[in-house]
Design goal:
elongated
């Protein structure tokens, strides 16, 4: 039996700045009561010999190793660019002078 009461739900509603009518208070009291009871059941099952985990299934890294590969030369990267300035792409300014 949890300690969720309609008054507590109303207080939580005030703290969250949520206006709750009586029907919502009644519904949320039951739902929060069930949530608290289920959390208590989990706490009863958890034992000291069971290590805490963040996930029920062991996670493993699925990314490939980060290895340096062949890269484009500056000339290859700029060969199809609409406009270039030396070894850089030239693009239209998107910020006004005072914003730069």
């Amino acid at each position: 039996m949890s300690e969720i009461t309609p008054d507590l739900v109303r207080h939580l509603g005030v703290l969250a700045r949520i206006q709750l009518d009586d029907a919502e208070v009644t519904r949320l009291t039951g739902e929060l009561d069930a949530i608290v009871d289920n959390i208590a059941k989990v706490g009863q099952v958890a034992r000291d010999d069971v290590p805490a985990t963040s996930h029920p299934i062991a996670l493993q890294n699925v990314f490939r190793p980060d290895e340096v590969g062949t890269m484009l030369t500056t000339e290859q990267a700029l060969q199809n660019a609409p406009d270039a300035d030396g070894d850089r792409f030239r693009v239209t300014a998107i910020l006004a002078e005072e914003e730069q």
